[in-house]
């Protein structure tokens, strides 16, 4: 199924949107050691999956109203690829894309491994990341799967190439909207800014201009959580995020004094993730 990109610089958000019920449930799976959140509208099937070693969330979305049931994965992890592909098969979906929000430093992406196990799947990452993938996206692009789509928003600051994927705006798209923020915006936190071209000033501007301008009921789904949270909203983070509710200078001071340890997987993960998670395709 071909990728459909629509380039646009317009981010106006109509307020007169139809609202449909959105159900979120959380199940604990002892066998897989993961948390799963599920949601279903008339079109969208959604699963939130957890990789416990790096505390990474992977997201599965599919258009079940389309005959092909096209699906995509956001931020897959190499260690849980078999779990993810098994779920795709069980749900009768056709995986077409594996997306990354940025070049991760704490785990190896599963996109390359997915491509070896499911020929035809295309990998996606931002052009600004400087890394390799089948498709390189830019701000304003739309990644379509069936009749649904994700809008690409540039949210650099944690890394140079961070992007946020936001579900479509309109009565034919699932509501409320969902923002997959990677490490730019976490629940009651944000990603560090002291490596990979990070900038606290850039991150502050990214979140306030590209995420906090979304409708207040937009659901926030980050790439990680370390405190047991699974979802937030734009309104909650605007009110309660202990870093991003501060002014710009205070935020900069907070980020410059975190004194975080060097990521233990960085020297392995970053080189691998620059080439879609596989450093040597031949081997």
UniProtKB/TrEMBL annotation:
SMART domains: Lactamase_B (SM00849). Keywords: Metal-binding. SUPFAM superfamilies: Metallo-hydrolase/oxidoreductase. The keyword Transmembrane does not apply. InterPro entries: Metallo-B-lactamas (IPR001279), Mito_Persulfide_Diox (IPR051682), POD-like_MBL-fold (IPR044528), RibonucZ/Hydroxyglut_hydro (IPR036866). Residues 55-224 form the Metallo-beta-lactamase domain. The keyword Cell division does not apply. Signal peptide: none annotated. This is Metallo-beta-lactamase domain-containing protein. It comes from Salix suchowensis.
């Amino acid at each position: 199924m071909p990728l459909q990109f629509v380039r646009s610089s317009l981010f106006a958000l109509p307020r007169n949107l139809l609202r449909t019920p959105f159900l979120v449930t959380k199940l604990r799976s002892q066998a897989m050691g993961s948390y799963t959140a599920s949601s279903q509208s008339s079109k969208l099937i959604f699963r939130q999956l957890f990789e416990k070693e790096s505390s990474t969330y992977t997201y599965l979305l599919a258009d079940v109203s389309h005959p092909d049931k096209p699906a995509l994965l956001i931020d897959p992890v190499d260690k849980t690829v078999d779990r993810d592909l098994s779920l795709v098969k069980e749900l009768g979906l056709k995986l077409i894309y594996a997306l990354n929000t940025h070049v991760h430093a704490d785990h190896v992406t599963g996109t390359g491994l997915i491509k070896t196990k499911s020929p035809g799947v295309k990998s996606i990452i931002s052009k600004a990341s400087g890394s390799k993938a089948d498709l390189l996206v830019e701000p304003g692009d739309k990644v379509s799967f069936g009749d649904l789509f994700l809008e690409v928003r540039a949210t650099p600051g944690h890394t140079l190439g961070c992007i946020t994927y936001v579900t479509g705006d309109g009565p034919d798209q699932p509501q409320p909207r969902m923002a997959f923020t990677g490490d730019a915006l976490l629940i009651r936190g944000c990603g560090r800014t002291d490596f990979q071209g990070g900038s606290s000033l850039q991150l502050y501007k990214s979140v306030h201009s590209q995420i906090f301008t979304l409708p207040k009921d937009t659901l926030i789904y980050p790439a990680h959580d370390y405190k047991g949270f699974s979802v937030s909203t734009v309104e909650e983070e605007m009110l309660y995020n202990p870093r991003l509710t501060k002014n710009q200078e205070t935020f900069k001071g907070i980020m410059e004094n975190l004194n975080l340890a060097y990521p233990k997987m960085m020297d392995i993960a970053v080189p691998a993730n620059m080439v879609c998670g596989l450093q040597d395709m031949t081997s």
